[in-house]
Amino acid sequence: MNILQVIASGGLGGREMQPVKLAEMMREKGHNTYLLVRKGSLSIPLIKEKGLPYDELKMDGYLNFRSLIPLAKILKEKKIDVIHTHISRSLLFLHLARILSKRKIKLIFTQRMGMNVKKDDIYHWFIFNRVDQIISVSEYVKARFLKAAPFLKDKIKVVYNGIGRKEEKVTFKEKKRFQKEFGLKKRTVKIGLVAQLNAGKGHMWTIRAAKLLKEKYKYENFKIFFVGKGEWTDSIKDFARTHDIASKVIFAGFRWDVDYFYRNFDIALIPSKSEAGGNVIIEAMAFGKPVICSDTGYFPEVIESGINGLMVRYDDTLSLTEAMYQLIKNASWRKKLGKKARETVQKKFLYDNTVKNYIRIYTETAGK
């Protein structure tokens, strides 16, 4: 079976990284997998680094006529059986290219974001009905998709994102390096939030909770780490200053070595307004870290509160503060929650499971 993974977007987020990882792992398992990448995509250096075969074409907007014939030629030469794209605006382009190739190619689309707008107009009815299988990255996304396009109820399956196994234990040397890098005291509790510093990620809510932790519970020996950057960076820094909590917040900026932070955190925060099915929560859990998350998006599919993490009502500052304080004061509970979190990932969210599910869907859809 010959599979074409399509990256029709130019960034370097989940919808670019997941196809690369899928292609890499499927090739390891003996499946002929190729990548079609939007010209100039930020994912290209990563693809080159991994030595994966790829073709680069202009894929701007819904349709690029000049790229249709080159793509049809690629489909024919590589004898592609399945096209798998991760963004809906590429569907018309891919559908027309497979017609031009004169091959019986199955078209699969993964929906990675929740939908807020109805998709029951003639164009979407037409193009989604040309798709052979739609995959959602969570039950939450599936429900949102079906609300937007109810005519697709028999065509959607859920396949969760996966991650690789993580080394959870931090070495003594690395622990000392982390303390020195950020000027930490020996027993400082490290609470981390890894996310872009943008709206809806919960940074300001976290700052309000940190202030309450200091003032209500009189607890001082903690640091909040914000790992990432974004358009709200300056606003969040100002918010920390005006709330007189800036000394407790470390802005680490964008870092490639996110694993280094997760290994050194004592508690991981994911206080997002809504997450459709991203990796940030399962990455923290894979390191055996106790997670505090909001009760929104797909988090209830991952976290059983009090068993493998804690869920709190979104934007409820008191609830978040109390959850943080309980975990700060109870190291054995932190360890217990972290252990269960890691077990959850190993059972449900490893790449091996994701790839196995995709291979099954490819095989069933293509009839191979």
Number of helices: 15
Number of domains: 2
Alpha-carbon Rg, integer = 22 Å
- Helix/strand-derived category reads alpha/beta
Low-confidence stretches: none
Largest sheet: 7 strands, parallel
**What's the helical proportion of residues?**
40-55%
What shape does the CA trace take? elongated
Please tell me the CATH architecture of the largest domain by its name: 3-Layer(aba) Sandwich
CATH superfamily caption of the largest domain: Glycogen Phosphorylase B
Major sheet strand order: 3-2-1-4-5-6-7
CATH fold name of the largest domain: Rossmann fold
Task: List the helices and strands in order.
Answer: EHEHEHEHEHEHEHEHEHEHEHEHEHHH
CATH class of the largest domain, please? Alpha Beta
**Proportion in β-strands:** 15-25%
C-alpha end-to-end distance: 7 Å
Mean pLDDT reading: 92
Secondary structure tally: strands? 13
Please explain how this structure is put together.
This protein has 368 residues and is an alpha/beta fold. The protein has two domains: 2-162 and 350-366, Rossmann fold (3-Layer(aba) Sandwich), CATH 3.40.50.2000; 172-348, Rossmann fold (3-Layer(aba) Sandwich), CATH 3.40.50. The chain is built from 15 helices and 13 strands. The strands form two sheets. The chain has a seven-stranded parallel sheet, sandwiched between helices. A six-stranded parallel sheet has the order 10-9-8-11-12-13, sandwiched between helices. Helix 3 (65-77) crosses helix 4, helix 8 (203-216) packs across helix 13 (317-329) and helix 11 packs across helix 14. It is elongated, with a radius of gyration of 22 Å.
